[in-house]
Amino acid sequence: MKPIWIVDDDQSIRFVLEKALAREELAVRSFSSGRDVMTALANDVPQVLVSDIRMPGGSGIELLSKIKASHPALPVIIMTAYSDLDSAVSAFQGGAFDYLPKPFDVPKAVELIRRALDESLREEVSDNGHVQMPEILGQAPAMQDVFRAIGRLSQSNVTVLITGESGTGKELVANALHKHSPRAAGPFVAINTAAIPKDLLESELFGHERGAFTGAQTTRRGRFEQADGGTLFLDEIGDMPFDLQTRLLRVLSDGQFYRVGGHHPMKSSVRVIAATHQNLEERVRAGTFREDLFHRLNVIRLRLPPLRERLEDVPALTRYFLQKSAQELGVEGKRITEAALARLVQFDFPGNVRQLENICHWLTVMAPGQVIDAKDLPPELQRGPSAAGEGATPGAIAPVGSASAAAPAVTVAGAAPPEAWLAGLEREARSRLEAGETMVWDALTRRFEGQLIRTALDVTRGRRIEAAHKLGIGRNTITRKIQELGLDD
User: Fold this and answer.
1) What is the pLDDT of residue 402?
2) Domain 311-382: which topology?
3) pTM score of the predicted model
Protein backbone atom coordinates (compact mmCIF):
# COMPACT_ATOMS: atom_id res chain seq x y z
CA MET A 1 0.00 0.00 0.00
CA LYS A 2 1.22 3.49 -0.85
CA PRO A 3 1.96 6.01 1.90
CA ILE A 4 -0.29 8.80 3.14
CA TRP A 5 1.04 12.26 2.34
CA ILE A 6 0.72 15.12 4.84
CA VAL A 7 1.15 18.69 3.54
CA ASP A 8 1.40 21.50 6.10
CA ASP A 9 3.87 24.29 6.71
CA ASP A 10 3.33 23.82 10.47
CA GLN A 11 5.87 21.25 11.65
CA SER A 12 3.89 20.47 14.81
CA ILE A 13 0.82 19.44 12.78
CA ARG A 14 2.96 17.19 10.60
CA PHE A 15 4.59 15.65 13.67
CA VAL A 16 1.28 14.90 15.44
CA LEU A 17 -0.26 13.27 12.37
CA GLU A 18 2.93 11.32 11.58
CA LYS A 19 3.02 9.82 15.08
CA ALA A 20 -0.72 9.07 15.14
CA LEU A 21 -0.60 7.32 11.76
CA ALA A 22 2.59 5.47 12.67
CA ARG A 23 0.75 3.99 15.68
CA GLU A 24 -1.78 2.67 13.17
CA GLU A 25 1.13 1.13 11.24
CA LEU A 26 0.49 3.36 8.25
CA ALA A 27 3.31 4.69 6.08
CA VAL A 28 3.53 8.50 6.01
CA ARG A 29 5.42 11.04 3.97
CA SER A 30 5.39 14.72 4.90
CA PHE A 31 5.78 17.93 2.90
CA SER A 32 5.92 21.57 3.90
CA SER A 33 4.52 23.09 0.70
CA GLY A 34 2.31 22.34 -2.28
CA ARG A 35 5.24 22.86 -4.65
CA ASP A 36 7.10 19.95 -3.06
CA VAL A 37 4.01 17.75 -3.46
CA MET A 38 3.66 18.55 -7.15
CA THR A 39 7.31 17.76 -7.68
CA ALA A 40 6.94 14.42 -5.86
CA LEU A 41 3.84 13.54 -7.87
CA ALA A 42 5.96 13.30 -10.99
CA ASN A 43 7.44 10.07 -9.62
CA ASP A 44 4.93 8.75 -7.08
CA VAL A 45 1.28 8.92 -6.02
CA PRO A 46 0.00 8.63 -2.43
CA GLN A 47 -2.89 6.53 -1.21
CA VAL A 48 -4.42 9.58 0.51
CA LEU A 49 -3.38 13.24 0.62
CA VAL A 50 -4.02 15.45 3.68
CA SER A 51 -3.33 19.12 2.99
CA ASP A 52 -3.51 22.36 4.92
CA ILE A 53 -5.50 25.09 3.22
CA ARG A 54 -3.24 28.06 3.92
CA MET A 55 0.43 27.61 3.09
CA PRO A 56 3.13 29.85 1.64
CA GLY A 57 3.67 29.37 -2.07
CA GLY A 58 0.15 28.17 -2.90
CA SER A 59 -3.06 27.23 -1.06
CA GLY A 60 -4.46 23.79 -0.44
CA ILE A 61 -7.38 24.63 -2.76
CA GLU A 62 -4.96 25.33 -5.62
CA LEU A 63 -3.13 22.09 -4.85
CA LEU A 64 -6.46 20.23 -4.78
CA SER A 65 -7.37 21.61 -8.20
CA LYS A 66 -4.07 20.49 -9.73
CA ILE A 67 -4.24 17.04 -8.17
CA LYS A 68 -7.82 16.43 -9.26
CA ALA A 69 -6.86 17.39 -12.82
CA SER A 70 -4.12 14.76 -12.95
CA HIS A 71 -5.30 12.17 -10.35
CA PRO A 72 -9.10 12.47 -10.06
CA ALA A 73 -9.49 9.27 -7.99
CA LEU A 74 -7.02 10.33 -5.26
CA PRO A 75 -8.87 11.14 -1.98
CA VAL A 76 -7.82 14.56 -0.68
CA ILE A 77 -8.64 15.78 2.84
CA ILE A 78 -8.37 19.54 3.38
CA MET A 79 -7.43 20.89 6.81
CA THR A 80 -9.01 24.26 7.60
CA ALA A 81 -10.06 26.47 10.51
CA TYR A 82 -13.57 26.13 11.97
CA SER A 83 -14.51 29.63 10.86
CA ASP A 84 -13.31 29.23 7.28
CA LEU A 85 -16.66 28.23 5.74
CA ASP A 86 -15.77 29.58 2.30
CA SER A 87 -12.72 27.34 2.24
CA ALA A 88 -14.77 24.31 3.20
CA VAL A 89 -17.24 25.00 0.41
CA SER A 90 -14.39 25.53 -2.05
CA ALA A 91 -12.85 22.25 -0.95
CA PHE A 92 -16.01 20.29 -1.66
CA GLN A 93 -16.57 22.09 -4.95
CA GLY A 94 -13.04 21.18 -5.89
CA GLY A 95 -13.65 17.49 -5.24
CA ALA A 96 -12.21 17.03 -1.75
CA PHE A 97 -13.04 13.78 0.04
CA ASP A 98 -13.75 15.73 3.24
CA TYR A 99 -12.34 18.54 5.30
CA LEU A 100 -10.73 18.38 8.73
CA PRO A 101 -11.39 21.41 10.95
CA LYS A 102 -8.58 22.77 13.10
CA PRO A 103 -7.98 22.31 15.95
CA PHE A 104 -8.81 18.66 15.43
CA ASP A 105 -9.22 15.67 17.70
CA VAL A 106 -6.39 13.30 16.72
CA PRO A 107 -8.41 10.05 16.93
CA LYS A 108 -11.14 11.62 14.78
CA ALA A 109 -8.53 12.80 12.28
CA VAL A 110 -7.08 9.29 12.07
CA GLU A 111 -10.58 7.84 11.68
CA LEU A 112 -11.30 10.20 8.77
CA ILE A 113 -7.98 9.33 7.12
CA ARG A 114 -8.77 5.63 7.61
CA ARG A 115 -12.07 6.15 5.82
CA ALA A 116 -10.38 7.91 2.92
CA LEU A 117 -7.84 5.11 2.83
CA ASP A 118 -10.58 2.47 2.61
CA GLU A 119 -12.14 4.47 -0.20
CA SER A 120 -8.91 4.66 -2.18
CA LEU A 121 -8.43 0.89 -1.93
CA ARG A 122 -11.88 0.07 -3.29
CA GLU A 123 -12.59 -0.81 -6.87
CA GLU A 124 -13.05 2.24 -9.08
CA VAL A 125 -16.61 3.21 -9.80
CA SER A 126 -17.45 1.91 -13.26
CA ASP A 127 -18.32 4.59 -15.76
CA ASN A 128 -21.88 3.95 -16.83
CA GLY A 129 -22.38 7.48 -18.05
CA HIS A 130 -23.35 6.47 -21.57
CA VAL A 131 -25.68 3.60 -20.70
CA GLN A 132 -29.21 4.20 -21.90
CA MET A 133 -31.47 4.88 -18.94
CA PRO A 134 -34.51 2.56 -18.73
CA GLU A 135 -38.00 4.02 -18.70
CA ILE A 136 -39.18 2.16 -15.60
CA LEU A 137 -37.33 -0.31 -13.36
CA GLY A 138 -38.88 -3.25 -11.58
CA GLN A 139 -38.32 -6.98 -11.16
CA ALA A 140 -41.06 -7.47 -8.57
CA PRO A 141 -44.08 -9.50 -9.75
CA ALA A 142 -46.41 -6.52 -9.24
CA MET A 143 -44.28 -4.38 -11.57
CA GLN A 144 -44.05 -7.18 -14.13
CA ASP A 145 -47.85 -7.12 -14.24
CA VAL A 146 -47.68 -3.39 -14.98
CA PHE A 147 -45.17 -3.97 -17.79
CA ARG A 148 -47.36 -6.66 -19.32
CA ALA A 149 -50.34 -4.30 -19.22
CA ILE A 150 -48.35 -1.57 -20.97
CA GLY A 151 -47.41 -4.10 -23.64
CA ARG A 152 -51.02 -5.18 -24.17
CA LEU A 153 -52.15 -1.56 -24.43
CA SER A 154 -49.34 -0.59 -26.82
CA GLN A 155 -51.54 -0.62 -29.92
CA SER A 156 -54.63 0.80 -28.26
CA ASN A 157 -56.08 4.29 -27.85
CA VAL A 158 -58.33 3.26 -24.95
CA THR A 159 -58.65 5.55 -21.91
CA VAL A 160 -56.58 4.37 -18.92
CA LEU A 161 -56.97 5.18 -15.22
CA ILE A 162 -53.75 4.78 -13.20
CA THR A 163 -54.15 4.44 -9.45
CA GLY A 164 -51.51 4.33 -6.75
CA GLU A 165 -50.04 6.25 -3.83
CA SER A 166 -48.20 9.51 -4.37
CA GLY A 167 -44.65 8.96 -5.58
CA THR A 168 -45.21 5.56 -7.20
CA GLY A 169 -44.43 6.81 -10.72
CA LYS A 170 -47.84 7.28 -12.30
CA GLU A 171 -46.59 9.89 -14.78
CA LEU A 172 -43.75 7.58 -15.87
CA VAL A 173 -46.27 4.87 -16.67
CA ALA A 174 -48.49 7.37 -18.53
CA ASN A 175 -45.48 8.46 -20.56
CA ALA A 176 -44.62 4.84 -21.34
CA LEU A 177 -48.20 4.17 -22.46
CA HIS A 178 -47.94 7.16 -24.82
CA LYS A 179 -44.46 6.24 -26.09
CA HIS A 180 -45.54 2.72 -27.03
CA SER A 181 -48.90 3.72 -28.54
CA PRO A 182 -49.91 4.63 -32.12
CA ARG A 183 -49.84 8.27 -30.93
CA ALA A 184 -46.14 8.20 -30.03
CA ALA A 185 -45.32 10.75 -32.76
CA GLY A 186 -47.79 13.21 -31.22
CA PRO A 187 -47.30 15.35 -28.09
CA PHE A 188 -47.48 14.10 -24.50
CA VAL A 189 -49.04 16.84 -22.39
CA ALA A 190 -49.34 16.49 -18.59
CA ILE A 191 -51.30 18.61 -16.13
CA ASN A 192 -51.73 18.19 -12.38
CA THR A 193 -55.33 19.21 -11.75
CA ALA A 194 -54.70 19.51 -7.98
CA ALA A 195 -51.84 21.98 -8.42
CA ILE A 196 -53.79 24.66 -10.34
CA PRO A 197 -56.33 26.99 -8.67
CA LYS A 198 -59.94 26.26 -9.56
CA ASP A 199 -60.50 29.60 -11.32
CA LEU A 200 -57.48 28.97 -13.61
CA LEU A 201 -57.92 25.26 -14.27
CA GLU A 202 -60.69 25.68 -16.84
CA SER A 203 -58.52 28.04 -18.89
CA GLU A 204 -55.54 25.67 -18.54
CA LEU A 205 -57.57 22.76 -19.89
CA PHE A 206 -59.65 24.40 -22.59
CA GLY A 207 -57.85 27.68 -23.34
CA HIS A 208 -59.44 31.14 -23.51
CA GLU A 209 -60.28 33.87 -26.00
CA ARG A 210 -58.77 37.30 -25.83
CA GLY A 211 -60.71 39.47 -23.36
CA ALA A 212 -62.49 36.48 -21.80
CA PHE A 213 -61.49 37.75 -18.34
CA THR A 214 -59.24 40.35 -16.74
CA GLY A 215 -55.68 39.69 -17.83
CA ALA A 216 -56.61 37.64 -20.91
CA GLN A 217 -54.79 39.91 -23.36
CA THR A 218 -54.27 37.24 -26.01
CA THR A 219 -55.99 34.06 -27.16
CA ARG A 220 -54.49 31.01 -25.50
CA ARG A 221 -54.64 27.34 -26.51
CA GLY A 222 -55.51 24.97 -23.70
CA ARG A 223 -54.01 21.56 -22.93
CA PHE A 224 -56.60 19.72 -25.01
CA GLU A 225 -55.57 21.68 -28.09
CA GLN A 226 -51.87 21.32 -27.26
CA ALA A 227 -52.27 17.54 -27.02
CA ASP A 228 -54.10 17.20 -30.36
CA GLY A 229 -52.93 13.98 -32.03
CA GLY A 230 -51.23 12.81 -28.86
CA THR A 231 -51.91 12.03 -25.21
CA LEU A 232 -53.22 14.21 -22.37
CA PHE A 233 -52.25 13.05 -18.88
CA LEU A 234 -54.61 14.33 -16.16
CA ASP A 235 -52.84 13.76 -12.85
CA GLU A 236 -54.75 13.80 -9.54
CA ILE A 237 -58.07 13.70 -11.36
CA GLY A 238 -59.84 12.98 -8.06
CA ASP A 239 -59.25 16.59 -7.00
CA MET A 240 -60.89 18.15 -10.06
CA PRO A 241 -63.71 20.60 -9.13
CA PHE A 242 -67.19 19.13 -9.65
CA ASP A 243 -68.35 21.70 -12.25
CA LEU A 244 -65.25 21.09 -14.37
CA GLN A 245 -65.92 17.35 -14.24
CA THR A 246 -69.06 18.03 -16.29
CA ARG A 247 -67.09 19.82 -19.00
CA LEU A 248 -64.47 17.07 -19.05
CA LEU A 249 -67.17 14.43 -19.44
CA ARG A 250 -68.54 16.28 -22.46
CA VAL A 251 -65.12 16.40 -24.11
CA LEU A 252 -64.57 12.68 -23.51
CA SER A 253 -67.98 11.94 -24.95
CA ASP A 254 -67.84 13.84 -28.25
CA GLY A 255 -64.37 15.40 -28.46
CA GLN A 256 -65.79 18.96 -28.54
CA PHE A 257 -65.23 21.84 -26.14
CA TYR A 258 -65.36 25.63 -25.99
CA ARG A 259 -62.54 27.94 -24.98
CA VAL A 260 -63.33 30.19 -22.02
CA GLY A 261 -65.17 33.16 -23.53
CA GLY A 262 -65.48 31.36 -26.87
CA HIS A 263 -68.61 30.76 -28.97
CA HIS A 264 -67.32 28.30 -31.54
CA PRO A 265 -66.85 24.61 -30.70
CA MET A 266 -63.32 23.24 -30.92
CA LYS A 267 -62.37 19.64 -31.69
CA SER A 268 -59.28 17.79 -30.60
CA SER A 269 -58.20 14.17 -31.08
CA VAL A 270 -56.73 13.29 -27.71
CA ARG A 271 -56.16 10.07 -25.80
CA VAL A 272 -56.78 10.73 -22.10
CA ILE A 273 -54.84 8.98 -19.36
CA ALA A 274 -55.92 9.91 -15.84
CA ALA A 275 -54.29 9.20 -12.50
CA THR A 276 -55.19 9.52 -8.85
CA HIS A 277 -53.99 8.46 -5.42
CA GLN A 278 -57.56 8.62 -4.10
CA ASN A 279 -60.32 6.01 -4.00
CA LEU A 280 -62.66 7.29 -6.70
CA GLU A 281 -65.43 4.83 -5.77
CA GLU A 282 -65.54 6.40 -2.30
CA ARG A 283 -65.57 9.89 -3.78
CA VAL A 284 -68.47 8.86 -6.04
CA ARG A 285 -70.39 7.60 -3.00
CA ALA A 286 -69.58 10.85 -1.17
CA GLY A 287 -70.96 12.86 -4.08
CA THR A 288 -67.71 14.68 -4.84
CA PHE A 289 -66.94 12.85 -8.09
CA ARG A 290 -69.35 12.24 -10.96
CA GLU A 291 -70.25 8.58 -11.38
CA ASP A 292 -70.63 8.90 -15.15
CA LEU A 293 -67.17 10.48 -15.43
CA PHE A 294 -65.71 7.73 -13.27
CA HIS A 295 -67.09 5.06 -15.60
CA ARG A 296 -65.85 7.01 -18.64
CA LEU A 297 -62.32 7.11 -17.20
CA ASN A 298 -62.31 3.63 -15.67
CA VAL A 299 -62.12 1.70 -18.96
CA ILE A 300 -58.76 0.10 -18.16
CA ARG A 301 -57.33 0.47 -14.67
CA LEU A 302 -53.66 0.07 -13.80
CA ARG A 303 -52.69 -0.10 -10.13
CA LEU A 304 -49.10 0.85 -9.29
CA PRO A 305 -47.81 -0.92 -6.17
CA PRO A 306 -46.23 1.15 -3.38
CA LEU A 307 -42.50 0.63 -2.93
CA ARG A 308 -43.02 -1.28 0.33
CA GLU A 309 -44.73 -4.00 -1.76
CA ARG A 310 -41.73 -4.30 -4.09
CA LEU A 311 -38.74 -3.90 -1.78
CA GLU A 312 -36.76 -6.34 -3.91
CA ASP A 313 -36.53 -3.52 -6.46
CA VAL A 314 -34.87 -1.09 -4.00
CA PRO A 315 -31.22 -2.07 -4.75
CA ALA A 316 -31.61 -1.68 -8.54
CA LEU A 317 -33.60 1.55 -8.14
CA THR A 318 -31.00 2.95 -5.74
CA ARG A 319 -28.10 2.29 -8.12
CA TYR A 320 -30.11 3.73 -11.00
CA PHE A 321 -31.00 6.93 -9.11
CA LEU A 322 -27.41 7.40 -7.89
CA GLN A 323 -26.25 7.15 -11.49
CA LYS A 324 -28.99 9.50 -12.67
CA SER A 325 -28.21 12.08 -9.95
CA ALA A 326 -24.51 11.99 -10.79
CA GLN A 327 -25.27 12.64 -14.47
CA GLU A 328 -27.63 15.51 -13.64
CA LEU A 329 -25.08 17.13 -11.31
CA GLY A 330 -22.10 16.45 -13.57
CA VAL A 331 -20.18 14.56 -10.90
CA GLU A 332 -18.68 11.09 -10.57
CA GLY A 333 -21.23 8.40 -9.72
CA LYS A 334 -21.16 6.88 -6.25
CA ARG A 335 -21.30 3.24 -5.23
CA ILE A 336 -23.33 1.93 -2.32
CA THR A 337 -22.36 -0.90 0.01
CA GLU A 338 -24.44 -3.99 0.68
CA ALA A 339 -24.85 -2.87 4.31
CA ALA A 340 -26.38 0.44 3.18
CA LEU A 341 -28.66 -1.34 0.71
CA ALA A 342 -29.77 -3.72 3.44
CA ARG A 343 -30.75 -0.74 5.58
CA LEU A 344 -32.68 0.80 2.69
CA VAL A 345 -34.55 -2.44 2.06
CA GLN A 346 -35.74 -2.41 5.70
CA PHE A 347 -37.34 1.03 5.26
CA ASP A 348 -41.04 1.26 4.35
CA PHE A 349 -40.76 4.39 2.13
CA PRO A 350 -44.00 6.30 2.80
CA GLY A 351 -42.98 8.61 -0.05
CA ASN A 352 -42.46 5.63 -2.38
CA VAL A 353 -40.11 5.77 -5.38
CA ARG A 354 -40.01 9.58 -5.34
CA GLN A 355 -38.69 9.49 -1.78
CA LEU A 356 -35.98 6.98 -2.71
CA GLU A 357 -34.96 9.15 -5.67
CA ASN A 358 -34.68 12.23 -3.47
CA ILE A 359 -32.66 10.32 -0.88
CA CYS A 360 -30.25 9.24 -3.64
CA HIS A 361 -29.98 12.84 -4.83
CA TRP A 362 -29.19 13.92 -1.26
CA LEU A 363 -26.56 11.18 -0.93
CA THR A 364 -24.92 12.24 -4.21
CA VAL A 365 -24.48 15.75 -2.81
CA MET A 366 -23.90 15.15 0.89
CA ALA A 367 -22.30 11.72 1.43
CA PRO A 368 -18.51 11.97 1.86
CA GLY A 369 -16.44 9.83 -0.45
CA GLN A 370 -17.40 7.77 -3.44
CA VAL A 371 -18.74 4.77 -1.51
CA ILE A 372 -21.92 5.17 0.52
CA ASP A 373 -22.05 3.14 3.71
CA ALA A 374 -24.96 2.63 6.12
CA LYS A 375 -23.70 5.43 8.38
CA ASP A 376 -23.94 7.90 5.47
CA LEU A 377 -27.71 7.43 5.13
CA PRO A 378 -30.06 10.15 6.44
CA PRO A 379 -31.10 9.89 10.12
CA GLU A 380 -34.62 8.64 9.36
CA LEU A 381 -32.99 5.59 7.78
CA GLN A 382 -30.64 5.06 10.71
CA ARG A 383 -33.40 4.34 13.21
CA GLY A 384 -34.78 1.17 11.71
CA PRO A 385 -37.66 0.22 9.44
CA SER A 386 -40.39 2.05 11.36
CA ALA A 387 -38.65 5.42 11.58
CA ALA A 388 -40.18 6.66 8.37
CA GLY A 389 -40.64 10.25 9.29
CA GLU A 390 -39.35 10.68 12.80
CA GLY A 391 -36.98 13.42 13.73
CA ALA A 392 -34.90 15.86 11.81
CA THR A 393 -33.11 15.33 8.56
CA PRO A 394 -29.33 15.82 8.24
CA GLY A 395 -28.21 19.30 9.11
CA ALA A 396 -30.59 21.79 7.57
CA ILE A 397 -30.62 19.92 4.29
CA ALA A 398 -33.18 17.16 4.04
CA PRO A 399 -33.91 14.87 1.14
CA VAL A 400 -37.02 16.47 -0.31
CA GLY A 401 -40.07 14.22 -0.15
CA SER A 402 -38.69 12.20 2.75
CA ALA A 403 -42.20 11.98 4.15
CA SER A 404 -41.67 13.41 7.55
CA ALA A 405 -45.23 12.78 8.54
CA ALA A 406 -45.16 9.29 9.63
CA ALA A 407 -45.34 6.06 11.18
CA PRO A 408 -45.37 5.75 14.95
CA ALA A 409 -42.34 4.35 16.72
CA VAL A 410 -42.43 0.61 17.29
CA THR A 411 -40.83 -1.12 20.26
CA VAL A 412 -38.05 -3.48 19.14
CA ALA A 413 -39.04 -7.11 19.67
CA GLY A 414 -37.47 -8.53 22.77
CA ALA A 415 -36.37 -5.17 24.16
CA ALA A 416 -37.32 -4.24 27.71
CA PRO A 417 -39.67 -1.29 28.13
CA PRO A 418 -37.65 1.93 28.40
CA GLU A 419 -38.89 2.47 31.98
CA ALA A 420 -36.97 -0.58 33.16
CA TRP A 421 -33.53 0.96 32.84
CA LEU A 422 -34.49 4.63 32.73
CA ALA A 423 -36.17 4.31 36.12
CA GLY A 424 -32.97 2.89 37.56
CA LEU A 425 -30.95 5.70 35.99
CA GLU A 426 -33.35 8.26 37.42
CA ARG A 427 -33.04 6.79 40.93
CA GLU A 428 -29.24 6.79 40.74
CA ALA A 429 -29.11 10.35 39.41
CA ARG A 430 -31.58 11.62 42.02
CA SER A 431 -29.69 9.94 44.83
CA ARG A 432 -26.37 11.50 43.80
CA LEU A 433 -27.84 14.94 43.14
CA GLU A 434 -29.70 15.05 46.45
CA ALA A 435 -26.50 13.95 48.20
CA GLY A 436 -24.79 17.07 46.87
CA GLU A 437 -22.44 15.47 44.35
CA THR A 438 -21.18 17.89 41.66
CA MET A 439 -19.73 15.58 38.98
CA VAL A 440 -22.83 13.47 38.41
CA TRP A 441 -22.75 13.85 34.63
CA ASP A 442 -19.19 12.57 34.27
CA ALA A 443 -19.68 9.76 36.77
CA LEU A 444 -22.84 8.36 35.20
CA THR A 445 -21.59 8.88 31.65
CA ARG A 446 -18.45 6.86 32.44
CA ARG A 447 -20.54 4.04 33.91
CA PHE A 448 -22.94 4.10 30.95
CA GLU A 449 -20.14 4.05 28.35
CA GLY A 450 -18.22 1.41 30.29
CA GLN A 451 -21.23 -0.90 30.48
CA LEU A 452 -21.96 -0.48 26.75
CA ILE A 453 -18.38 -1.32 25.79
CA ARG A 454 -18.13 -4.28 28.21
CA THR A 455 -21.37 -5.71 26.84
CA ALA A 456 -20.26 -5.25 23.23
CA LEU A 457 -16.90 -6.90 23.94
CA ASP A 458 -18.69 -9.78 25.66
CA VAL A 459 -20.99 -10.24 22.64
CA THR A 460 -18.03 -10.17 20.23
CA ARG A 461 -15.80 -12.26 22.52
CA GLY A 462 -13.27 -9.49 22.94
CA ARG A 463 -12.96 -8.47 19.27
CA ARG A 464 -12.62 -4.70 19.52
CA ILE A 465 -13.11 -3.79 15.88
CA GLU A 466 -16.31 -5.84 15.68
CA ALA A 467 -17.52 -4.34 18.97
CA ALA A 468 -16.86 -0.83 17.68
CA HIS A 469 -18.79 -1.62 14.50
CA LYS A 470 -21.78 -2.92 16.47
CA LEU A 471 -21.77 0.17 18.70
CA GLY A 472 -21.47 2.49 15.72
CA ILE A 473 -18.18 4.07 16.81
CA GLY A 474 -14.68 4.08 15.34
CA ARG A 475 -11.96 1.57 16.18
CA ASN A 476 -9.79 4.35 17.59
CA THR A 477 -12.67 5.65 19.69
CA ILE A 478 -13.25 2.28 21.36
CA THR A 479 -9.51 1.87 22.02
CA ARG A 480 -9.34 5.34 23.59
CA LYS A 481 -12.46 4.74 25.69
CA ILE A 482 -11.15 1.40 26.97
CA GLN A 483 -7.98 3.16 28.12
CA GLU A 484 -9.83 6.14 29.64
CA LEU A 485 -12.34 3.96 31.51
CA GLY A 486 -9.71 1.50 32.69
CA LEU A 487 -11.45 -1.47 31.08
CA ASP A 488 -8.12 -3.13 30.28
CA ASP A 489 -7.51 -3.68 33.96
Assistant:
1) 42
2) Helicase, Ruva Protein; domain 3 (1.10.8)
3) 0.56
